[in-house]
Amino acid sequence: MHGNGKKDDGPGLVRPAQAFLHSETGQGSPYFVYTYSTQMAEVEVDVKTGAVDVLNLVATFDIGKAINPIMVEGQIEGGVMMGLGYALMEEVVMKDGMVQNLNLQDYIIPTALDAPEIKPIYIEYLNVHGPFGAKGIGEMPNIPAAPAITNAIANAVGVRIYDLPAHCERVYMAIRKRLAEGN
Asked: Which stretch of 14-23, 30-39, 46-55, 82-91 has the lowest confidence by average pLDDT?
């Protein structure tokens, strides 16, 4: 028996509960291990240029048991940086069905210089279906980063960006539009 109370087939092997889904009604349990998260960002926006600088980002995850805590923190930090790129700079430019930015000179991704202060937080609440109580972290940190950053932009300058990336031109034009409308 492992710490999660499930009979195993040897060291490190756990058979999780069988997922099921009724094809006609869509009811059931298609997945047995859900990870919950939230992120909050602090940004600085230059209203004259629309440039956004992410100063701090807190990323919190309910991951079950952290089997390797240092790896979990690294995964959170790396995923946050992926999400930051998606939120502020990464954009596939298409023309006539052809990608126009085929290299890293034209497809901008974040570097260490773009990294904000990241505070990774994980909550350990053992999951009965995961091995040793773990749920996992995977790409989870990537998902809430863009909404956290765009919500922080909206809070800072009073405009909501609906199209990503929220690069400086997009943010600047949204600020100008808000000012022109007198809001």
From this structure: 14-23
